[in-house]
Known about the structure:
CATH topology: Spore Coat Polysaccharide Biosynthesis Protein SpsA, Chain A
CATH architecture: Alpha-Beta Complex
Helix content: 25-40%
CATH superfamily: Spore Coat Polysaccharide Biosynthesis Protein SpsA, Chain A
Largest sheet: 7 strands, mixed
Number of domains: 1
Amino acid sequence: MKDAAICMTATITPNTVLVSATDVSERLADYKKCIRFYLDQTNLPIYFLENSDYDLSKDVDFEVFKAVERFKLIRFKPHPDSEKGKGFQEFYTLDRFVKNHLKESVLIKVTGRYIVKNVEVLIAQIQSQLTIDLHRKMKVAITGFFVVDKAIYLAHFYEKYKLANDKNGKFIEHVLYDEIMSSSLKSITTLLPQNSQYRGVSGSYGGSLERNKYKMMVRQMERKILRSLDIPQFLIEY
């Protein structure tokens, strides 16, 4: 994929409500593993967006990362409203990055503590302006990993974080789904070409991200059929 960059969103010291993983040392270790993985598995620019006040100035591992020309650490202050949840904070940060710092034309967004084991294959196969998994029953867009043109992001997702409020059950996943399905994006959105093979622990519920392999085989079959029919969301949940 040409003119694309990987964006890893990160909060080393949790600064909002409803976050399952709160141990700072564990979170930092997870982020480091993920950075190393994406540096090793891709040759794309990598932006690490950190939005807490954790001091990385003396971290030896981050000094090594920063010595890699295509790795950039960018720090942001969190939104002062800490009550609306991690998706609210994450996309508030992402907005500022995309508008003011992203030089490339395509954004590959990954939650910073998630390893997508098949990231190389996914990136090689993605061609659409917006590639993201949508689920009709739950009315959500899966934001752990997706690919979007910068222009599309700014036109449709910028400042949509304001509509998210985890305490009220309106997650950023609902917000993006609503925007996609109610706008012109619906006609250009495609599902990911393969199941994302996640490794890690959910920041919301604390469980493993790895899924039953037999269910994922069925999901991949469904994915192939839906993509061939230009249907941009999963119709079956299990």
